[in-house]
Amino acid sequence: MSVSKARLTAFRTLDAVNRKAAYANLELAKQLSQTTFDSRDAGFITELVAGTCRLQGTYDLIIAQAASRSTNKLQPAVLVILRMVCHELLTLRTPDHAAVHSAVQLAHNLVGSRVSGLVNAASRKIAERNLSQWLDVLASGLKPMEELALRNHHPAWIVESFAHRLDSEELPPALAANNINPQVHLAVRPTLMAVAELRDVTTGKYSPYCAYLDHPPNWYQEVKAGIAGVQDEGSQLVTLALTRAQAPKGVWLDLCAGPGGKTALLAGLATMAGEELVANELQPQRARLVRENLKAFPNPPKVVVSDGRDSTWHTGEFSRTLVDVPCSGLGALRRRPESRWRRNLADLENLIPLQHDLLASAIKATMPGGVIAYVTCSPHLCETHEVVDSIDPSQAELLSASEFLPEVPDCADGSFVQLWPQRHGSDAMFLALLRRM
């Protein structure tokens, strides 16, 4: 049986995501680079991969019923094939016969003829209902929050965490926004170029360095040259806010720099201010990415490889410090479709002590009167409010972060800034600004 090249590429990508914990976007780019596809096939593969990852939890519930067995009883490759056929049948609306036939072909060629009957029977069962009808079946007996999670294709614990931040009217649109492929944002590097110099883009709404792309990033020579780079507008805004608060003259620090998008923007802003920047990153491979992002600057910032909790610099050495801590990534679920099913509360609990330690280290590294930006790509209270609220007021005072982003409406979260996809079209970035006492 012949297998379509497009579906085989999608399978290989999803299989790596499933069995090797690969990042879907990186693995997809790798797979697409190995074979030539026209724009139609490339778009189909991209949607099949991203959509299957995004709805994976929902599809697994459907598969368990259609195959009359728990998904952990299925071979990994068979599970991936059935997830793909779910997306084709229930979301892409591929004709039943074509989707089922393709699934059986994949199973026969990649797993063996003995599983073809199982895949055929389960696929036909899946095709008996549309997605709305399947959700009605699965929702029977669920509590309201559980049903909201099911119908919006999120784990319940993530929905509960969003419910602590949003009212009942805004919660469903916020969840729905996580299921929409985001427009790609670009950041030009200050002193290297201006947004007005870019062709075939739309100027960003809020950041003066942001553009919304009309083509894939690799279409733009400016991206290849390193004078601009892919960066969500929310990331640009929280970086920009740090540079707007009053602070003494002195060297700036990016404490957790990898992979370097914020570092490159800071580097340009520091150059404009006549200041120097130091970038610190724990992992050598991520430090290499930071250096790659800084390659276009005539005098790029120094990149240090060290643990931000155990710094090699003197206490009070820096005038401005950005600490973009490792986090759950719940604010970027649009861009990382597989992450919602990988993370759990235990992961979050393991991250929180690190976030506390890194913020404390950032404060210690900052000179009196200097400013610290604590940033996460997560709206979860444990990673945001609770970390900042734990700081001793004698060490640092909280500034009103939204005052430094006056062009961004409805971003104030008390003294903090919280951005949201459904409000601002950006990732759900959190920002706290503190002044070292």
Account of the protein in words:
- This protein has 437 residues and is α/β, with parallel strands linked by helices.
- It has helices at residues 5-20, 24-33, 39-54, 56-67, 76-90, 96-110, 116-126, 131-139, 144-151, 156-163, 171-177, 221-225, 233-244, 261-273, 284-293, 339-342, 345-365, 385-389, 421-424, and strands at 185-188, 201-203, 210-213, 228-230, 252-254, 277-281, 302-305, 318-324, 366-376, 396-398, 412-413, 416-418, 430-436.
- Strands 5, 6, 7, 8, 9, 10, 11, 12 and 13 form a 9-stranded mixed β-sheet that branches. Strands 2-3-1-4 form a 4-stranded antiparallel β-sheet.
- Helix 4 (56-67) crosses helix 7 and helix 6 runs antiparallel to helix 7 (116-126).
Outline of the structure:
The protein contains 19 helices and 13 strands. With 437 residues, it is α/β, with parallel strands linked by helices.
Largest sheet: 9 strands, mixed
Described by the principal axes of the CA atoms, the overall outline is: globular
Q: Structural class per helix/strand content? A: alpha/beta
Number of helices: 19
Based on CA atoms alone, the radius of gyration comes out at 23 Å
**Helicity, in percent?**
40-55%
Q: Are there runs of 5+ residues with pLDDT below 50, and where?
A: none
State the end-to-end distance.
71 Å
What order do the helices and strands come in, and which of them pair?
Elements: H1 5-20, H2 24-33, H3 39-54, H4 56-67, H5 76-90, H6 96-110, H7 116-126, H8 131-139, H9 144-151, H10 156-163, H11 171-177, E1 185-188, E2 201-203, E3 210-213, H12 221-225, E4 228-230, H13 233-244, E5 252-254, H14 261-273, E6 277-281, H15 284-293, E7 302-305, E8 318-324, H16 339-342, H17 345-365, E9 366-376, H18 385-389, E10 396-398, E11 412-413, E12 416-418, H19 421-424, E13 430-436
Parallel strand pairs: 5-6, 5-8, 6-7, 8-9
Antiparallel strand pairs: 1-3, 1-4, 2-3, 9-13, 10-13, 11-12, 12-13
